[in-house]
Write a structure and sequence with these properties.
The complex is a heterodimer. Chain A folds into three domains: 196 residues, 4-Layer Sandwich (Aldehyde Ferredoxin Oxidoreductase,  A, domain 1), CATH 3.60.9.10; 190 residues, Aldehyde Ferredoxin Oxidoreductase Protein, subunit A, domain 2; 75 residues, no CATH class. Chain A contains 20 helices and 17 strands. In chain A, the strands form five sheets. Chain A has a six-stranded mixed beta sheet, with helices on both faces. In chain A, strand 7 and strand 8 form a beta hairpin. By secondary structure, chain B is an alpha+beta fold. Chain B has a single domain, classed as Ubiquitin-like (UB roll), CATH 3.10.20.30. In chain B, a hairpin with a 2-residue loop joins strand 4 and strand 5. The chains are: A alpha+beta, B alpha+beta. At the A-B interface, helix 9, helix 11, helix 18 and helix 20 of A face helix 1 and strand 7 of B.
């Protein structure tokens, strides 16, 4: 099967060994790429280990379309045994690192072992180096991106962790390009446990394809088709933020730590409110549906908002101003914290405070209190000591009835959809392989368009179908699923 | 009066986000709207129950017309 760079790059940080392995035809056909490759490698090579130990491995895995001039093909999957859940964990990220990795001649990067001192991996085609990162340790992901671009030039891909990953916070993620985020289930903490601050990639080669001319034609047709869709302009204006009003109307909006499904101040936060403060947009490489909405936050700094972040750092903690949400979102991106889990952790602490289960007072919608807690999470001090491992572990410490309103599945915090009145979505969260993530089977549209309250066999089959399509096909191809439903870009399977 | 609410880009197709219309006799939704919507990608709720463009709407009904989405 064509379309692969054909090699796995393996870097061992304990002894500095670098090796390159061929990807077998059988592996390509059975596991496709991305999540498929990552799950196969972890299944074969990692068993019964502490996620933050030297024995765990972290996989950076692209798919057969990654880096090609096709719509939404600028992503990769980052996977490992998760410190947040204790099981398989992964997340996808749109990054030039995905494109460069393939151009450098690799489909997959496996990092194993642990460096004695902070380091980063620098890949330029065949040359692979493990370099000193002591000067980067303690720096934010934005500062790290800047420093690495100064050292290696702007035409590179960077995957970096912030202080949260260095300190092994359970929901520390990986950030690229000052705002692209991935690896919800603590992939940043795994990098931190290995003293791996960043991966820098530059590839100058060509990705092998079967028919280059036809590929170019298909890409041109695809980009043109997307741009010609009747809702393309609306998407460009609001992106995923259009979901906010939709969820509020359908009582799916996470509000007050998922106690309610609608928010009294939703008009201050929805896609139309966003349009009023939006100053720019950003997105993944090779995408013409860029969904990162840039606003100036309350501290007059740029921050990139999408629905999940606004849902969890907005109504879920009763924050009623997009510019305030922006401050928390920017802090999370700088420190390398997942915004979904962060919003759930803040909501958990607010509810615990309200119920008198913790001494500290943290009121709903209190921006300053949230900022303080974020600093404490990163340092694992104060309230951060309680919550850095996510809400499941926090509930074990806080006690009382907090297990009943610690909103997670398998230890991973629930994405920004309240499923009290969407049992199919509850099933989806409950059976997702990595915990409560929306990427595997988002079935709410289908439920509402049929019979949202039913517990039918048909609904179960729809969840399974979507899990295979979204969690299986898209995550293994590592192409974005948003063009498919959002602008009705045709796929055939 | 019947109340109509349009979400997302469907509001732009109709030209308004919210409208109230006095119907007199009950009428089919498509006849009331008089605008072409992408029917296979629209969800219609009438008083919170699933409907379609041929559903009959009466005064007092609340109709929500929204696009299919796939989450954030």
């Amino acid at each position: 099967m064509e379309g692969y760079a054909g090699k796995i790059l393996r870097v061992n940080l304990s002894d500095g060994r670098v090796s390159k392995e061929k990807i077998s035809e059988e592996m390509r056909e059975k596991f496709l790429g991305g999540r498929g490759f990552a799950a196969k490698i972890l299944w074969d090579e990692v068993s019964g280990v502490d996620p933050l130990s030297e024995e765990n491995k972290i996989i950076f895995s692209t798919g057969p379309l990654t880096g090609l001039p096709l719509p939404s093909s600028g992503k990769m999957v980052i996977a490992s045994k998760s410190p947040l859940t204790g099981g398989y964990g992964d997340g996808n990220i749109g990054s030039m690192a995905a494109v460069h990795l393939r151009r450098a001649g690799y489909d997959v990067l496996i990092v194993e072992g642990r460096s004695e001192t902070p380091c980063y991996i620098a890949i330029q085609d065949e040359e692979v180096k493990i370099l000193d990162a002591r000067d980067l340790w303690g720096r934010t992901t934005f500062e790290s991106q800047d420093t690495l671009e100064t050292k290696h030039g702007k035409n590179i891909g960077v995957l970096a962790i912030g202080p949260a990953g260095e300190n092994m916070v359970g929901f520390a993620n990986v950030i690229s390009q000052r705002g692209r985020a991935g690896g919800r289930p603590g992939m940043g903490a795994v990098m931190g446990s290995k003293n791996l601050k960043a991966v820098v990639v530059k590839g100058t080669g060509k990705i092998p394809v079967f028919d280059e001319e036809r590929l170019r034609e298909m890409g041109k047709e695809g980009y043109g088709e997307i741009k010609g869709k009747e809702n393309y302009d609306f998407w460009i204006r609001q992106g995923t933020m259009q979901v906010f009003e939709w969820c509020d109307e359908n009582s799916c909006l996470p509000t007050y730590n998922f106690r309610e499904g609608t928010f009294q101040f939703s008009k201050r936060l929805d896609g139309y409110a966003l349009e009023g403060v939006k100053v720019d947009r950003k997105g993944c490489p090779l995408c013409n549906m860029q969904c990162g909405n840039i606003i100036k936050d309350l501290e007059n700094k740029n921050t990139e908002l999408d629905y999940e972040s606004v849902g969890m750092l907005g109504p879920n903690i009763a924050m009623d101003d997009l510019r305030k949400v922006g401050v928390l979102n920017r802090m999370a991106d700088e420190y390398g914290l997942d915004t979904i889990s962060l919003g759930s952790c803040l909501g958990f602490l607010m509810e615990a405070s309200e119920r008198g289960l913790i001494d500290a007072r943290i009121a709903w919608g209190d921006l300053d209190a949230c900022k303080k807690v974020i600093e404490e999470i990163v340092k694992k001090k104060g309230l951060g000591e309680i919550i850095f491992g996510g809400v499941r572990k926090a509930a074990e410490r806080v006690g009382g009835d907090s297990r009943d309103w610690a909103m997670h599945v398998k230890g991973m915090e629930i994405s920004a959809y309240d499923c009290h009145a969407c049992p199919g979505m509850a099933l989806s969260y409950g059976t997702s392989p990595i915990g409560a993530h929306h990427k595997d089977a988002w079935v709410i549209s289908w439920e509402i368009s049929t019979d949202r309250f039913s517990y039918s066999r048909e609904k179960v089959e729809k969840v399974i179908e979507l899990q295979r399509l979204r969690g299986g096909l898209f995550e293994s191809m590592t192409t974005c699923r948003l063009p498919w439903i959002e602008v009705n870009f045709g796929i055939h399977w | 009066m019947a109340e109509f609410r349009f979400l997302g880009y469907l509001a732009e197709i109709y030209g308004k986000k919210n409208v109230e219309i006095s119907l007199g006799n009950p009428r089919r939704l498509r006849d009331i709207l008089g605008v072409e919507f992408p029917e296979d990608r629209s969800i219609i709720l009438i008083n919170q129950r699933v409907g379609n463009f041929d559903s009959v709407i009466r005064n007092g009904d609340r109709v929500v017309i929204m696009p299919m989405i796939s989450g954030g």
